[in-house]
């Protein structure tokens, strides 16, 4: 009987318990082998370079380098790298950022074990894997206008609770300009006020509360 081809895996997550659980789950499969682990984005790049896994499972929010930054660094050096983002963040901005950086898949951490296996096998075979709920999240937001870099700066300060006057002082423009940016942000996000803008931005992963 022919032995199934081993899919060599790198597991990247800054939470030890999560990482241990994933490794235990994956190593139970006869055709999977976890060859390396990493606890932050910088280490992920080093481990990938050292072990050259077939598929990498990568968290998004990590120290030193985020998952997306680590993914971009890995893909810059190894364009053929196959990386699945495995995260609790389901905002469309997180998803778009990961896919733009070259992710082959995007899974949420509440994924069932069987679907995780399917995703790994699909990505190993050269296909992209997006669960239905992730694809739907992208489709729902496809028509939403993008925020400009300046609007993103203003939004970050909104989330920190700064007033229009304080935002103007930090970014060195007039309070009138600050109000205009806030008004544009509210309109683009389709909400009624600045509190709604903050809530929507956090839910969509445009900004994160660290």
Structural write-up:
This protein has 210 residues and is of the alpha/beta class. It folds into 2 domains: 7-140, 3-Layer(aba) Sandwich (Rossmann fold); 149-203, Orthogonal Bundle (Arc Repressor Mutant, subunit A), CATH 1.10.10. Helix content is 51%, strand content 12%. It has 10 helices and 5 strands, in the order E-H-E-H-E-H-E-H-E-H-H-H-H-H-H. The protein has a 5-stranded parallel sheet, sandwiched between helices. Helix 4 links the parallel strand 4 (83-87) and strand 5 (105-108). Helix 2 packs parallel to helix 3, helix 8 (164-171) packs across helix 9 and helix 9 packs across helix 10. The longest helix has 15 residues, at 175-189. It is elongated. The N and C termini lie far apart (52 Å).
Question: Topology of this structure?
Answer:
Blueprint: E1 7-12, H1 16-27, E2 32-38, H2 41-51, E3 55-58, H3 67-77, E4 83-87, H4 92-100, E5 105-108, H5 113-124, H6 132-140, H7 149-159, H8 164-171, H9 175-189, H10 194-203
Parallel strand pairs: 1-2, 1-3, 3-4, 4-5
Helix pairs in contact: 2-3, 7-9, 8-9, 9-10
């Amino acid at each position: 009987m022919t032995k199934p081809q081993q899919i060599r895996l790198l597991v990247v997550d800054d939470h030890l318990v999560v990482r241990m659980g994933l490794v235990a789950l994956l190593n139970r499969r006869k055709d999977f082998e976890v060859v390396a682990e990493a606890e932050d984005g910088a280490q992920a790049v080093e481990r990938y370079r050292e072990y050259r896994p077939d598929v990498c499972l990568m968290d998004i929010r990590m120290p030193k380098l985020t998952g997306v930054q680590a993914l971009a660094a890995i893909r810059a050096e190894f364009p053929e790298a196959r990386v699945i983002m495995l995260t609790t963040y389901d905002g469309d901005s997180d998803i778009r950022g990961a896919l733009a950086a070259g992710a082959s898949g995007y899974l949420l951490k509440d994924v069932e074990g069987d679907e995780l296996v399917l995703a790994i096998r699909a990505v190993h075979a050269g296909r992209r894997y997006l669960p239905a709920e992730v694809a739907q999240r992208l489709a729902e937001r496809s028509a939403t206008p993008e925020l400009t870099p300046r609007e993103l700066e203003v939004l970050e300060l909104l989330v920190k609770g700064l007033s229009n006057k304080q935002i103007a002082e930090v970014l060195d423009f007039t309070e009138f300009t600050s109000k205009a940016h806030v008004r544009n942000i509210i309109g683009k996000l389709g909400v009624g006020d600045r509190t709604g803008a903050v809530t929507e931005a956090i839910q969509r992963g445009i900004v994160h509360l660290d």
